[in-house]
Hints:
By secondary structure, the protein is α/β, with parallel strands linked by helices. The chain has two domains: 26-213, Rossmann fold; 218-270. It is 44% helix and 13% strand. Strands 2-1-4-5-6-3-7 form a seven-stranded mixed β-sheet, with helices on both faces. Helix 5 (148-155) links the parallel strand 5 (132-136) and strand 6. Helix 8 (218-232) packs across helix 9 (238-252). The longest helix is centred in the first third of the chain and has 15 residues, at 2-16. The termini are far apart. The model is unreliable at 12-17 (pLDDT under 50).
Amino acid sequence: xxxxxxxxxxxxxxxxxxxxxxxxxxxxxxxxxxxSAPDRLRAVAQVNKIxxxxxxxxxxxxxxxxxxxxxxxxxxxxxxVLLWGAxxxxxxxxxxxxxxxxxxxxxxxxxxxxxxxxxxxxxHLRDSRHRFLLFCDDLSFDQDDSxxxxxxxxxxxxxEGRPDNVLFYATSxxxxxxxxxxxxxxxxxxxxxxxAVEEKVSLSDRFGLWLGFHPCSQDEYLAMVSxxxxxxxxNISLEQQRAEAIEWQQTRGARSxxxxxxxxxxxxxxLGKKTR
Length: 276
């Protein structure tokens, strides 16, 4: 009876378990979103991106990321990249725009919460003829967060090694992917940080390239506004555009590419123009 009961339980669990992911058809799109529970790759018909020429004030980061991505697309050695720094300065926009101008790469977005399933995703990518750029936006870890261990499967590759056809790009507001005050608090407890904190800090060292994004000047902010207005054909005098843009950033208490885009969206709405 016990054996029969165990078999019935196993059969019931198998019925409840989601079916394994079938071999994905990567020919249907150039971008996908990875989702777990159940595992699936959802095709993205059109990536939400802006023209790379509109990204003002980040020329050095743009050129380095473009060169690294082109090397990868050509089958040459390339580095995993951490884009870190000020909010709204175009980190994720740059990744998506670079993907748009470098052909031959499939972009796969993965959420931080799905990092524990990244090993299964790698299994589906390893033997593919395509080249894949894994992208995690706004990546960071708190003190009790163990998701960072799963990320090592991409950055270090374990005993199998990272597949040659996979590269990882991440954006974060934190250079070390964790709060600065948490690092300092741990340092104050002793001569050296705790092993757990040291392990998380060392995770950022596994990115071959660090690209820093810093707050923009007012001139850079106004250049962003002007570039957006010109690209969308918004007819407004330079004096009015400048005055309104400065007032807009003052009400927000910040200057960034995101704030510039939000002002231009408001302006386009008032002028009866569409931004997309």
